[in-house]
Amino acid sequence: MRAVAAAVGVSPPSVYLHFSDKDTLIFAVCQKLFAALDAAIESAAADLVDPFERMRARGLAYARFGVEHPEHYRVLFMQKPEAAPEGFGSEQLMESAAFAHLLENVVELLATGHLEPGLEAFPLAVELWALVHGCTSLLISHPALGLPPVDDLVGPACEHMMRGLLRRAAAPLELPAEDLP
Which residue has the higher pLDDT, 26 or 108? Predict the structure, then answer.
């Protein structure tokens, strides 16, 4: 706290007027970075028309950002819920701009008619986030595992998941009777 006070040119007790402790200060800084995360994701998807390509670009941008800012990512997404400052919890994460933009992209994907019927936007958005978050967390927490680079891990993972959500053929494949055992 003393270093922060010195950096902004105030006395250490002045910092405590705005932040109750070091963790609250660190989390406030990370929340600012959370806005930068959303900006990076939106920038990556901005010029893409196809909602599938936008989803892949969003996933890659999210993972790249996490890997480039591992300590901030840990504070925001990889600590125990009770470590978050009062007033910031799961609800705030789900109401964030980054998640809202992800949810909008999922709604667009569902509107294409190419996905399996019966999928719901919110649970699907959570599943997509969980996939990319899991990859990002592994890259940050276990660099010694020898995982592929972020683009080689997250890009294909997003593509595989998206392909798995595609609508299957309406009629089952019928084999000629002579091919049946």
Answer: 108
